[in-house]
Every structure is written in C-alpha cells, then in structure tokens.
Write a structure and sequence with these properties.
By secondary structure, this protein is α+β, with helices and mostly antiparallel strands. It is 43% helix and 11% strand. The chain has a domain of 56 residues. The longest helix has 11 residues.
C-alpha cells in the first residue's frame, strides 16, 4: 500500500539521525550535482527538494552562484536544519 506524504515524513523523522552522524558521507551526491551544474550557465533561485538537515547541497549551490531554498517533508529534518548546533 502506498504511503501518503504524512507517513513518508514520519518515516524520515525516524531515520533523521543517520544524516547527523559523524560517519555520514557528506560527499555522497556532490559529484552528480557538479555534473548537473555544467549543463547550464544560468544561476539564480534553486529549489532543493528533500533538502534534509545537514545543508551539504545548500553550501554547494551557494558556491556555484545559486540562491537555494530548501523543502523537506520531514518535520524532524527541518527542525535540525534550523538548529544552530548542527551547523557549528
């Protein structure tokens, strides 16, 4: 049975801790984003759908001249993304 958005958010709430561990590979997915940037010379607003809590793609987008805005379905991910402790 398919999950509705609320259930998906709750499922991610339960595994949020995996993205905050020291062992989390913050380089995962970066090379793919770098290749995608090569397809355009335009910069500006960028929507990071499923942004999560650690800001790794936000920083990458900023480095490449984008103005990112994050969106996530997990309340816990958003809570942590706003937390100053996570971004020290």
């Amino acid at each position: 049975m398919p999950m509705d958005p609320k259930q998906i958010g709750q499922a991610y709430d339960r595994i949020t801790h995996l993205w905050t561990r020291d062992e989390f590979d913050r380089t995962n997915g970066v090379a793919q984003h770098e290749r995608a940037f090569a397809f355009t010379d335009k910069r500006g607003a960028a929507l990071d759908v499923g942004c999560g809590c650690n800001g790794r793609f936000e920083a990458l987008l900023l480095q490449h001249g984008f103005t990112p805005e994050g969106l996530d379905i997990s309340a816990r991910m958003i809570e942590l993304a706003r937390s100053p402790e996570l971004h020290r």
